[in-house]
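Shape matters. Shown next:

___
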Amino acid sequence: MLLPMLSIYQEYVRNHHYSLQVLTECKQNAQFAGLLSRLEKKPACKGRSLEIFLTYPMHQIPRYIITLHELLAHTPPDHVEKNSLEHARVQLEDLSRQMHDEVSETENIRKNLAIERMIVEGCDILLDVNQVFVRQGTLI
């Protein structure tokens, strides 16, 4: 079955933040920024930026899960493929949870790193992966 191949989505999610960082760095180059701007203005892009297009693969797993739920709702209980569909749904939901956890962890690290960069002398403890970003706002 194709489920083992879906781990590519997990890898994509893991590297998504890095790809956005690379894109941001590339945009510092005027030639690249100009080319990207021209390409994004093409009618085929329908006003969407490259950043938007880079998020599309991350939305596929939830779409697959919805499709399986709909398919299962219309599959008779005694159908020969019912168990296979249930198994696929469970595996996709597990993969979705793992991907969500990884996105949350990456976002937490990114926020802690941003705070660490704002501290003049640095604060290495914020770079510990066990540190959790709890709240953002003004201190009283």
In short: The chain has a mean pLDDT of 81. The first helix runs from residue 7 to 26.
